[in-house]
Design brief:
Distance between the termini: 27 Å
CATH topology: Heat Shock Protein 90
Structural class: alpha+beta
Largest sheet: 5 strands, mixed
Oligomer: single chain
Number of strands: 7
CATH architecture: 2-Layer Sandwich
Bound molecules: adenosine-5'-triphosphate, magnesium ion
CATH class: Alpha Beta
Number of helices: 3
Strand content: 25-35%
Length: 146
Amino acid sequence: MARATTGENRVVMVEMPPDLPILHADQRRFSQVLGNLIANAIKFTPAEGRIAVSAFVRPDGGVSFAVADTGIGMAEETIAAALEPFRQLDGSLARKFEGAGLGLSIARALCELHGGTLSIVSAVGTGTTVTVSLPAERCEKARLSA
Ligand SMILES: Nc1ncnc2c1ncn2[C@@H]1O[C@H](COP(=O)(O)OP(=O)(O)OP(=O)(O)O)[C@@H](O)[C@H]1O
Ligand SMILES: [Mg+2]
């Protein structure tokens, strides 16, 4: 799905409930959403950190995916900037992390085109959780395991 720009082998924990509904989404584009978020989690988390991808059904019948890491995190007041296209929080020439600054803004746009939302909870030095949520209309009641 996603490849770390560092080329390191990293473990990503995946937790999916067995009763996840069938989702109606553009498969390629929605995979790109998750791929961009996982790529960020890998890039901004040191090798000894943890990365977890999970999915859950919300009480309103929609489905959310959370990509959580224990990486460098972002300050609350910089999160809006991180969502802007071509923005990287470390804009210095000597910055450590490669990228165009597009992954998050593309993920949010694709998510919103699906009628969903993207939200970020983060703290410097603690880590980041990005949650993408699809509305109930995109989730079929019949479960995959049924
Ligand atoms: N999981 C994360 N932990 C810490 N900072 C993050 C995380 N995800 C994004 N950021 C910050 O937000 C900025 C924008 O992220 P975005 O994915 O849009 O760009 P990028 O990863 O730098 O480049 P690209 O995705 O185009 O390769 C990043 O440069 C980084 O500063
Ligand atoms: Mg990125």
